[in-house]
Design brief:
By secondary structure, the chain is of the alpha/beta class. It is built from 10 helices and 10 strands. Strands 3-2-1-4-5-6-9-10 form an 8-stranded mixed sheet, sandwiched between helices. Helix 5 links the parallel strand 5 and strand 6 (about 200-205). Helix 5 (about 170-195) packs across helix 10. Residues about 215-225 and about 225-235 have low confidence and may be disordered. Keywords: Oxidoreductase.
Length: about 300
């Protein structure tokens, strides 16, 4: 069977894409490939200086690319609102692809500008708010996709609706797993609501396996759980470069007729590396009742309309 590679990327001329966290790692590779394939590509980055360097790097690699920078701090809902407005202007009212890539992992106890637990607030709530605020330009002039990055770590995740912000207790890996599980539940609920509303919008998810990115390098050493310990012991063997980790993201973003709610990741060695293929979701990631409850609570926390889709 043919393994999907970058040679299979379609031409994307006439489309507009946004990639969050596009200044490094999976996001930087994703943005470069989309821009090189002809999409007007907006790099949504927290640090303006690093963002400018990323834009310059794309322009050096693809001189004809239409690439632009938007400042976005997912840990600050006011920044999310400003970024959504800027994206609408830069996209000229049309957005075909949103890649919710940015994320943080295994942090010590920290809070966002709005008081949310940092991993849940950044990885899930920031992207939830950005997506809802971009609905007026998503899919208004043709089909659109929202691709949200999850992780193998979603398998250890549990959603605690009574303590989403870890106010009673905190574990860095427990919080990370919850945020990545939330990404998958958000994807399924967004897709369900878009279909119910008759919108030309498909929501999908992807994960990069074990990839050598700044996210992994910056995080504390894996320890404390069987799952984490296994990853730590096997990381030297299984880790792949960001260029390979981006393949499932690009696959989800461009695969013709990909079903809504699909989830893609590497195909080999327990989904840690290899060509992109359908990935396995935990049972908790397939719970429609929890997906709806999380959506409603996320809307309440971010002050947005749960019925916006």
């Amino acid at each position: 069977m043919h393994s999907w590679t970058l040679d299979d990327m379609p031409g994307l001329g006439g489309t507009t894409a946004v990639v969050t966290g596009a200044n490094s790692g999976i996001g930087a590779v994703t943005a470069l490939v989309l821009a090189r394939s002809g999409a007007r590509t907006l790099l949504a980055c927290r640090d303006p200086e690093r963002g400018r360097r990323a834009v310059d790097a794309v322009r050096r690699a693809a001189p004809a690319a239409d690439v632009r920078l938007v400042r976005l701090d997912l840990a600050d809902l006011s920044s999310v609102a400003e970024a959504a407005e800027a994206i609408g202007k830069e996209a000229d009212g049309r957005l075909d692809l949103l890649v919710n890539n940015a994320g943080v992992m295994a942090l010590p106890p920290l809070r966002t500008a709005d008081g949310f637990e940092m991993q849940f607030g950044t990885n899930h709530l920031g992207h939830f708010a950005l997506t809802l605020r971009l609905l007026p330009v998503l899919g208004v002039q043709g089909p659109a996709r929202v691709v949200t990055l999850s992780s193998l770590g979603h398998r250890i995740g549990r959603i605690d609706l009574d303590d989403l912000n870890a106010e009673r207790s905190y574990g860095k890996w427990r919080a990370y797993g919850q945020s990545k599980l939330a990404n998958l539940l958000f994807t399924d609920e967004l897709d369900r609501r878009a279909r119910a509303a008759g919108r030309d919008l498909v929501a999908l998810a992807a994960h990069p396996g074990l990839s050598a990115t700044e996210l992994g390098q910056a995080g504390p050493r894996l320890a404390g759980r069987n799952w984490a310990a296994k990853l730590e012991r096997s990381s030297r063997l299984y880790t792949q470069p960001a260029s390979a980790g981006a393949l499932p993201v690009l696959y989800a973003a461009t695969l013709p007729d990909a079903p809504g709610g699909s989830y893609y990741g590497p195909s080999r060695l327990g989904e840690t590396r290899g060509a992109p293929a359908p990935a396995r979701k935990s049972h908790r990631a397939q719970d429609p009742v929890m997906a709806r409850a999380l959506w409603d609570e996320s809307a309440r926390l971010t002050g947005l309309d749960a019925d916006a889709v």
